[in-house]
Amino acid sequence: MMTTLAQAGFPAAMHQLTLAHYLFISGAMFMLGLIGFLTRRNLIIMFLCTELMFQAAGLALVAFSRFHMNMTGQSFVIFIVTVAAAEAAMALALVVLLFRKRESLDAAEWQEMKG
Amino acid sequence: MDQVINPLALYGACALGAIGVLLALPRRDSKTPQILGAVIASLAGGIVLLAMGLKAGGLFGIGLSPSVYFYVFALVALGASLRVITHPRPVYAALYFVLSILATAGLFLILSAEFMAFALVIVYAGAILITYLFVIMLATQAPTEDLENALTEYDTAAREPVIATAAGFVLLAVLTTLMFRGVGELPKAPAINGQSLLAEMPRKIESALLAAGSLPSGAKVTFDSSGDAKVDFAARTVEIKLADGGTRMVSLPGDLAVTNTEMVGFNLLRDHPGSIEIAGVILLMAMLGAVVLSRKQVQLDEDAKERHAKLLAAEMAQGVETNP
Questions:
Q1: Which of A2, B32, B179, B301 sits a CA distance of 20 to 30 A from B249?
Q2: Residue A56 · residue A29 · CB < 8 Å
Q3: Nearest to B36 by CA among B26, B47, B24
Q4: Touching check for A80 and chain B: CB below 8 Å?
């Protein structure tokens, strides 16, 4: 029986070893986002790195969703995307505001705000 | 853990990857070119994937390893992510971010999460990235004539690269150790028939039967009291009501199946209706916040004003020197 990708429905659950592959990719991507967030000083790139971490979490959720044959994992990714979009809108509005005040995107410009 | 990957390969690749990322991060007094670091880091990622693929029994669709497309998309995703955090120019970093989004969408397709793959491309690569590019355009200093390609100081020098990279890779090593130890003991999922949702979509069954030509004229798919079609999944047949009032079982078309989008829709709207409302509130609040923030009048800081005046004075002095 020939089925297209969209008609294939929910295929069989995958093996634990296959799950481990996806979890490694997710972990490595999260770690790269974390390193970027810690090392880069440009505010825009720092927020780009948080998006990278969101995406890694989403990949882990979808992989577990396939492993456990439970669609809730995929539904949750919709909310991750929602939160990422809201965060991008707010954070970038703040970045523009901060840039207009100091004419610089350097996070170190604002270090007197530390407690 | 031994059944997933050889620990030696994992920890060796972690150390190699840390060195590679450290070399690839932008530094002011960079002796080695960034590309060398990127190559070393990619090599480390490749070693881990290769070791895992060999352990799972063959790389190319044989054994338990995922398909070869998985390795392509995984390497593209990790390489693009590395470039996002190491590229000194924000515009290029944003474009590499699109590449890593597309590769992740490819991984979602392999996991048969088609709806999420396309939603990711539309929302991230379409909407969020445009916002980022606009802000990068709005929030960069206009280049002066003689320094057209100059990079700002905060883009060329990373902050504490050694500590951050070491912390990141130690975290990765610990995380993967714990995950790989636990993943072998995960119980296998019960063999759920993903098609059981089909009974809740009598209209879909009806139109599929019509298209296949197996529905006599005037006949309808029968409902039970809860509105579900009476489907016999073992025999793949459904009960229909003929025009003269009698009932009959007809077999379902072979390609009739529940799609991923329908399953996500059922899960979202039937199991979590309240959370959709909450998502709407989050989006509304973000919109209001962005409007309020962008309407605010901002005065330049005293420091920034002073810097401006100095720059202007320097330019004037230069102008006097060149053409008196």
A1: A2
A2: yes
A3: B24
A4: no
